[in-house]
Specification:
alpha+beta, 44% helix, five-stranded antiparallel sheet, elongated
């Protein structure tokens, strides 16, 4: 027997037992149904994933109990005509299709004389329930976060966008893992070329297993040598819903509590979900602080070396004397001091992340205070270097996205080497190379520096919601991601009456 389902239960059982040999977590349960117990059937399921079949409140229990006392001649007729209506069940035409549904956490029901398998939905695999978002804390807004179950995550987005124009397209990736991936988008807002490009990239590779959305992200990005992320990751369904309404696509991967938003540009990573919920004055101030944090993370350590080693004339005399006095007795040059402290901080940061919660805080205290203070007292580093590295580290933590702060933490070592060897000219060279790279970078056809310097072929540049956030009532246009004929997202009721055919609602 190959992939077809036989009407003879013996053949089906032999095939199933051979395919599931040495799979002790599968339950294969033959039964006899009908008043005279003449109709043979077979139930196959994963032990932990399916509810107890004898329980009255389980789907498979209801199906079996309904046929338990039926006359034998009525059972097949009941399954063919009415069986699909009594519970959440679905017929499967082939063994491959049936096994795929069973491995997804459902039960299979085979009946003698019926050449199809019946998929019976159940509770599925164990998953964490919906809990509070832990990585993206906000003071105002929803506290819900994504879970490891992809269908639960899409339901959290659907709860916020109750519109049939929100489409959910499913794909299966991984020959062995059979991981379910969903694409969520607004049908009338998303650009068709964006959706087509994404689907082509997802279909362009064959892999054994996809166990997290990070695998999909790395396999589908076009500029894979760039340290800057071209996808935005988030664990907040409210943020995803807001971005879908802006014309972006959300990619959800089973077993991953992180959603992927695309396209993603520089400006997106420095905005948080509560920027839309707070007043524009405080949001603008917070955004300015974030942009300053990016610059300080990238340039502060390298600029300190450039100024103290090559361009001391730009500093006040008292400050130069203070620096000189602080460095007395330190045996290493400034560039080695900075590199030593930066690497020490990155090590402390990594240790704090990997250790359990209570120990992580302890490591931060021991590493940041005791080791730093001991290094200063031992004249291994000067106090000013500790201040410089501490400010740089603090600013890197102020960047909202961890994936976006990582490239700046990496590039700062390049700026340290450039500033320590070439001075200000090295810093300018690094800025030129970084800016040139960002100017040429694109995420699914959208320039990475949008909306600062980007227009589409038709001249539409989208809403310029960047460093300064204007009052919410004036944010009337969607960003560059959405279709050009759907650019208006907010209008007064009076204007709505005047332009009934020109809106996007």
């Amino acid at each position: 027997m190959k992939g077809d389902i036989s009407p003879h239960i013996e053949e089906n059982e032999a095939y199933i037992r051979k395919r599931l040999e040495n799979c002790d977590d599968f339950i294969i349960r033959p039964m006899l149904l009908g008043e005279e117990k003449k109709i043979r059937c077979l139930v196959v399921y994963i032990e932990v994933a399916v509810s107890n079949m004898v329980l009255e409140d389980s789907v498979i229990g209801k199906l079996v109990n309904h046929m338990w006392e039926m006359p034998a001649e009525e059972i097949l007729e009941f399954v063919r005509d009415n069986g699909m209506g009594i519970s959440d069940v679905q017929p499967m035409d082939s063994m491959d299709q049936a096994f795929a549904s069973m491995l997804a956490g459902n039960a299979l029901f085979f009946l003698d004389g019926y050449a199809r398998a019946i998929k019976v939905s159940s509770k599925g695999y164990p998953n964490l329930s919906v809990s509070e978002a832990t990585r993206e804390k906000v003071l105002r807004g929803s506290k819900e976060g994504f879970t490891d179950a992809v269908k639960t995550n899409s339901a959290l987005v659907r709860k916020r966008i109750r519109d049939t124009r929100l489409k959910v397209k499913q794909k299966t990736l991984g020959n062995r893992s059979q991981t379910l991936v969903q694409l969520l988008y607004m049908e009338d807002l998303v650009r068709p070329e964006l959706l087509e490009d994404l689907e082509n990239r997802l279909d362009s590779f064959v892999i054994d297993g996809v166990l997290d959305s990070g695998v999909v992200e790395q396999l589908t990005e076009s500029n894979w040598l760039s340290p800057f992320p071209q996808f935005q990751t988030t664990e907040r369904p409210d943020k995803c819903a807001a971005e879908i309404l802006n014309g972006r696509v959300l990619l959800l991967c089973d077993h991953s509590p992180m959603g992927i938003l695309l396209p993603a540009v520089f400006n997106d990573f420095l905005q948080v979900s509560e920027d839309s919920y707070n007043r524009f004055e405080i949001v603008s101030l917070q955004r300015i602080i974030r942009y300053c944090a990016v610059l300080i993370t990238l340039l502060f350590s390298g600029t300190y070396l450039a100024v103290t080693n090559f361009h001391t004339q730009v500093l006040p005399t008292n400050l130069i004397l203070s620096f000189s006095e602080a460095r007395q007795g330190v045996p290493f040059p400034g560039i080695l001091e900075i590199l030593f402290m930066e690497i020490a901080f990155e090590t402390i940061r990594e240790a704090g992340i990997r250790m359990p919660g209570p120990l992580g805080g302890t490591i931060g205290i021991v590493g940041g205070l005791i080791v730093g203070q001991a290094a200063v007292e031992a004249n291994l580093v000067s106090p000013i270097v500790v201040v410089v590295v501490a400010v740089t580290a603090l600013c890197s933590l102020a960047i909202p996205s961890e994936s976006f702060s990582a490239p700046f933490r990496l590039l700062k070592f390049g700026f340290i080497l450039l500033g320590g060897t070439l001075g200000v000219f090295g810093i300018l060279l690094g800025l030129y190379l970084t800016a040139s790279h960002l100017a040429g970078l694109k995420s699914f056809g959208i320039p990475y520096l949008s909306p600062f310097a980007a227009k589409t072929h038709a001249g539409y540049c989208g809403e310029r919601d960047s460093i300064i956030r204007i009052p919410f009532r004036f944010l009337t246009r969607r960003p560059i991601y959405a279709r050009e004929n759907q650019k208006v997202k907010l209008r007064t009721k009076e204007s709505q009456k005047k332009k009934q055919k020109g809106g996007s609602f």
